[in-house]
Design a protein that fits this description.
Helices cover 7% and strands 33% of the residues. The chain contains four helices and 16 strands.
Length: 352
């Protein structure tokens, strides 16, 4: 099987390099090379899940060109201490980041010289030391916490749960060898061979992710409701999505239309929430090209540890079109009392 990712930057940049999943961008970027550009900042869009910058600069022989830049979204930057007024339209800026693999003028920005001579670290994959300035802003240690806070165990599932990149990650297919852990059918393998991350990535143009892909998202999520409620909601900060879980163990109505998030039915097994999701028309198992059929059935299990510090999670995917046997994925989130869901505009709209 060929390596299908090449050097597509399909990950939120703070995720360990061994785990390529999460988001896509307008272009394909060369992760092995850092380039620098300098120019005038003519547009700033704080978007969920990715912020967008436009820089105009003068290239030899005196031609004005425009560069389109992606970087982490406002929720990630805010938690790292990078505030919105750190750079503004009209600023003269120096930016470093991953350049494109072709001739398009695009970059994933990792460092930018902000106002008052302070260098902003926009992604922890950037240099651990500032490139240009003695002062820096941008601390991503928040996302590398290994343990949660065991307070308030009586809350059960109903709280905000935080992503940590110390977890195993839901999808880990960063290279061809990792794909081999999936029992893919011949049809799925053929689809994977045809997948081009530059054009086929399912979240190009910021299309909100469906199930199961959305459950890899690297931002907080919150269970809203009570154990006895007929409906429990799972609020997901990325794309400001809300999953609805219908409690009571009933199957989806026969008239239910398929959708990217599907129809979810939940039940309690003691303190574990078991959720079965059907009626899916999201065509991807993951962003890396493994397909998903409308016959797919997802069974998730959510359970908090006794002290309330951690949410353990497993998902079993049964898709006879693409997998010769069920596939089980596992992950976990941590609890921190000071965390909350940050509300953004809808998918990729400017947030200010």
């Amino acid at each position: 099987m060929k390596t299908v990712l090449r050097y597509a930057l399909v990950a939120v940049i703070f995720v360990p390099l061994a785990s390529l999943a999460h988001h896509s961008f307008a272009g394909v970027f060369d992760r092995g090379t850092i380039i620098e550009i300098e120019g005038d900042l003519i547009e700033v869009s704080w978007r969920n899940p990715h912020s967008h910058l436009t820089i105009e600069r003068t290239d030899l022989p005196g031609e004005r060109t425009t560069w389109e830049l992606e970087t982490n979204g406002p929720g990630i930057l805010q938690r790292a201490g990078v505030e919105r007024d750190a750079f503004q339209v009209g600023d003269r800026v120096l930016v470093a980041g991953f350049g494109p693999v072709d001739d398009v003028k695009e970059m994933f920005a990792t460092n930018i010289m902000g106002r008052n001579g302070i260098e902003l670290i926009l992604a922890p994959a950037a240099s651990p030391e500032p490139r240009w300035a003695e002062e820096r802003t941008g601390d991503y240690s928040y996302f590398r916490r290994e343990e949660g806070d065991g307070s308030s165990p009586e809350l059960g599932l109903f709280r905000v749960w935080s992503f940590t990149n110390t977890s195993p990650g839901l999808f880990t297919e960063a290279n061809a060898q990792d794909f081999e852990r999936y029992p893919m059918t011949e049809a799925a393998q053929a689809a994977l061979q045809r997948f081009d991350p530059a054009t086929d990535n399912p979240t190009l143009n910021c299309v909100p992710k469906g199930m199961p892909t959305i459950m890899e998202q690297p931002l907080p999520m919150e269970f809203v409701g009570e154990p006895d409620d007929e409906i429990i909601q799972l609020h997901i900060e990325e794309y400001d999505l809300v999953r609805t879980i219908n409690m009571g163990g009933e199957e989806a109505p026969s008239s239910e239309a398929a959708s990217p998030l599907g129809y979810s039915v939940g039940r309690w097994e003691e303190a574990t929430l078991v959720v079965t999701t059907t009626h899916l028309n999201w065509p991807w198992f993951s962003q890396t090209g493994i397909p998903q059929s409308e016959d797919s059935v997802l069974i998730e299990r959510f359970s908090s540890t006794e002290d309330g510090s951690r949410l353990n999670y497993s998902m079993t995917v049964t898709d006879p079109v693409n997998f010769s046997e069920p596939v089980t994925l596992e992950n976990y989130w941590l609890f921190w009392p000071d965390e909350e869901i940050v509300q953004h505009s809808a998918s990729c709209e400017e947030t200010g």
